[in-house]
Amino acid sequence: MTKVAIIGNSHVAALKAAWDATPLPGLDMTFFAAPQRNFRQFALQPNRVYGLPAPQRGRHAEIVQKLNGALQIDLSGVDQVVLSAFGWNPGAIAQLIATCDIDGLRLTGAPTLLSRDLFDAICAALARALRPGPEWRHWPGAAPIFLAQAATCETCLGSSNADFASWQRLAAAPDGALAAFDIFFDHLRADLAGVGITLLRQPPQSLRPSGLTEARFLATGGGVVPGQEHLRGDHAHMNAAYGTLCLTALHDLIRRGPSPAPIPQSDTEV
């Protein structure tokens, strides 16, 4: 039995709902999560105890205790740690791909044309910025798994909120979008591998050609409210069906072990 701890913010809810419905064989799964405002206070102590340190308990303690039954989790006896939605904002790379064409990959008439070399360099810089803190790098035992947050749901296409403009551009001109996202994630996988962390991407069967997540995976209560299209709404949190896809992919990854990280190659010499 492999002991797994999934830690993170509110996006862990989809995974927890999936596990509660159908636990996977061979795994002993523990979840430790909180809304982002509380999750930001979590810290890993030298003894590998993770959660709310004593100075931060105050107003954060009640919700963390209610959700987890504890203020901290001991990771020292865990076989596999999963970092869910750690620091990853899908909108950042979506904006880059939506507003810039990429030579030889994506030509949509965008105002900016990037060479493949420049796109690679930008992706590499974005990937470096996503490294979890030093305390998670070169972890003793199995490498922590970085589970990427789901891309924004296609339900955002009905919103007039400017926050979703990049995703709407991608939906209107999706050619080459998934290939561009693949290049970014190749850089992220290679960068994380360099510090002893394994990347687990969003399951591909949940994605549209634009890179948006399919509407059937959005959590109940999300989407656009008629008459309130100007509001941002929730197009980010996914349901148990999405969680099942992620847990299945996680189960497969744990059983087979991580594959070597690809080294992204551009079409021309630097």
Task: Give the topology.
Blueprint (H helix, E strand, L loop, with lengths): L1 E7 L3 H10 L5 E7 L2 H4 L3 E2 L4 E3 L9 H8 L3 E3 L5 E5 L5 H10 E3 L9 E3 L1 H14 L15 E3 L17 H8 L4 H18 L3 E3 L39 H17 L14
Parallel strand pairs: 1-2, 1-6, 6-9, 7-8, 9-10
Antiparallel strand pairs: 3-4, 4-5
Helix pairs in contact: 1-8, 4-6, 4-7, 5-7
H/E series, N to C? EHEHEEHEEHEEHEHHEH
Give the class-level CATH name.
Alpha Beta
Helix share bin: 25-40%
Give me the secondary-structure category.
alpha/beta
Q: Terminal Cα separation, in Å?
A: 47 Å
Tally of domains: 1
Chain-averaged pLDDT: 93
The CATH architecture name reads 3-Layer(aba) Sandwich
What do you see in this structure?
The protein has eight helices and ten strands. The chain has 270 residues and is α/β, with parallel strands linked by helices. It has one domain (2-222, 235-256): Rossmann fold (3-Layer(aba) Sandwich). A five-stranded parallel sheet has the order 2-1-6-9-10. Strands 3-4-5 form a three-stranded antiparallel sheet, with no helix packed on it. Helix 1 links the parallel strand 1 (2-8) and strand 2.
